Amino acid sequence: xxxxxxxxxxxxxxxxxxxxxxxxxxxxxxxxxxxxxxxxxxxxxxxxxxxxxxxxxxxxxxxxxxxxxxxxxxxxxxxxxxxxxxxxxxxxxxxxxxxxxxxxxxxxxxxxxxxxxxxxxxxxxxxxxxxxxxxxxxxxxxxxxxxxxxxxxxxxxxxxxxxxxxxxxxxxxxxxxxxxxxxxxxxxxxxxxxxxxxxxxxxxxxxxxxxxxxxxxxxxxxxxxxxxxxxxxxxxxxxxxxxxxxxxxxxxxxxxxxxxxxxxxxxxxxxxxxx
Length: 275
Known about the structure:
- This is Ice-binding protein C-terminal domain-containing protein.
- Residues 244-267 form the Ice-binding protein C-terminal domain.
- Pfam families: PEP-CTERM.
- Keywords: Signal.
- By secondary structure, the chain is α+β, with helices and mostly antiparallel strands.
- The protein has helices spanning 2-15, 192-196, 217-222, 247-274; strands at 19-31, 33-34, 51-59, 64-67, 76-81, 84-93, 96-102, 109-118, 121-134, 138-139, 142-143, 147-153, 162-176, 202-211, 225-230, 233-242.
- It has an eight-stranded antiparallel β-sheet. Strands 12-7-6-3-1-16 form a six-stranded antiparallel β-sheet.
- Strand 4 (64-67) and strand 5 (76-81) form a beta hairpin.
- The chain is globular and about 50 Å long.
- The two termini are 23 Å apart.
């Protein structure tokens, strides 16, 4: 059933889009862990052990590269902007789902590391490719958010002063010298789709929430913060023959995934009770 749903989603997305440069449809799903925090957000506790579904379109021809220097004194890193389009995240809870959609103000960054250093291990090197979104500016209303609350289904969701401040989905590969990691060989216009489809990488997802208001970066960092993370996840990378589907189409598909997941969980729970 899950494979069938994923296949139908990809077909629907491809059919909804006009011809454009090569793009890749990336889906990520798994279970969530509420990370420890010195200043936690209690409402996030409801998502412990619950599932999530995220989807993104990776643009094969991003617009701008910005170098960001060595990592741990080694290698190189940088951002390709315009590489991530139409991002959407759905978090499921016992009573329903809450979804977030990528805003137009988000630059769509992919963060890349080639042969970076690893803290505490001078002989270890790391390659990394990751979707990276976060607050980089402020306006009269406070932080300009990379992802906006989109919809809640069946329950009240999160309080209005809780927001998704940062999102990361990354793959990494670590090696000890003299062997260097092979996930990346350089940062100059790599084939993102081919990189994402390489086996043997360690996937990681983090959703960083904050609570309150802020008018600058210092105030933002002082707010209560807590993350939902996942390493027990799966992802798919599918070439798209066309462009980017409308966010409304994505939302309906995500809600469909949630309804299917809820039905399967209930069916499993009934089976466990009988056993």
